């Protein structure tokens, strides 16, 4: 990944909100195991749940989502304390460490619309912040390919228990070692002020 551009670094210079003690963010960007593993290590994040967003409750199962016909994306619901980490800071980690925002309907070895890059704002303020963030990201020129991350609407549905905390429970799993542990290490190296071991 190229070095971060000044516009994104500004996000980390700005103080986190002193508003509500707890907010949620829903982000999709490839296999939820890796997203969950990254955000579990972000200071100020109190909970991360793997799940599905963008489709109906009836189709919110791994078997149905894997058919690539439900409209769901594998996603994570992040609960965070905005006094410690802001929504914009989470978006910066999402776009520079947790996944590649230029890959359309895929991440690494996984392909299909359920692996798309999408932000599911949980409030009008988040929607405004996400639009501005993606605009700055596109204008930055940091990536050679266009940013394909979409802003979408849709409810979040938790995934099956077998998918929760998968990286923490299976640190030696081949998929985790190759695809996800490098993302966690990148978080630790690039954002030490936001690292929680």
UniProtKB/TrEMBL annotation:
Keyword Acetylation: no
Reaction it catalyzes: [thioredoxin]-disulfide + L-methionine + H2O = L-methionine (S)-S-oxide + [thioredoxin]-dithiol; L-methionyl-[protein] + [thioredoxin]-disulfide + H2O = L-methionyl-(S)-S-oxide-[protein] + [thioredoxin]-dithiol
Enzyme Commission number, as recorded: 1.8.4.11
Top-level taxon of the source organism: Bacteria
InterPro entries: Met_Sox_Rdtase_MsrA_dom, Met_Sox_Rdtase_MsrA_sf
Keyword terms, alphabetized: Oxidoreductase, Signal
Positions of the Peptide methionine sulphoxide reductase MsrA domain: 24-175
Extent of the signal sequence: 1-18
Alphabetized Pfam families for the sequence: PMSR (PF01625)
Positions annotated as active site in the UniProt record: 31
Keyword Oxidoreductase: yes
Sequence similarity: Belongs to the MsrA Met sulfoxide reductase family.
Function: Has an important function as a repair enzyme for proteins that have been inactivated by oxidation. Catalyzes the reversible oxidation-reduction of methionine sulfoxide in proteins to methionine.
Record protein name field: Peptide methionine sulfoxide reductase MsrA
Protein's organism: Sphingomonas swuensis
Classification of source organism: Bacteria, Pseudomonadati, Pseudomonadota, Alphaproteobacteria, Sphingomonadales
